[in-house]
Predict the 3D structure of the following.
Amino acid sequence: MSQAKHTYKHPLLWVPTSYFTMGMVYITVVTASNILFKNLGMDNAKSALYSSLLGLTFTFKPLWSPLLELFKSKKWWVILMQVLLAGAFALMAPALRLQAWVIPVLGLLLVASILGATQDIGTDGVYV
């Protein structure tokens, strides 16, 4: 009898890059947005408030993680979130050129924050 080989890739091939992308989304949404707001002329108090509020989705991600169990696989969620995140960040460039940029950029950053937190949940599930 021949033994069946497992088809899993070694974790060192995908775990570091996966967790790097998780961190990059968080840093972009929380830290880089604060710098962005400040460079675009927003005062310190509003800039800190908005960037802090955007980070709350990463704090509350356990509240919607059980819902991800109901639909598709973890890998599907990770890939979908990465595609949607690329779209959200791509839309941010033209939004920054608008005269009234604050609401569209905050909205896109909020969407990116929710997508990034969901990607975190999926990535952790794939790894486990």
About this structure: The mean pLDDT is 87.
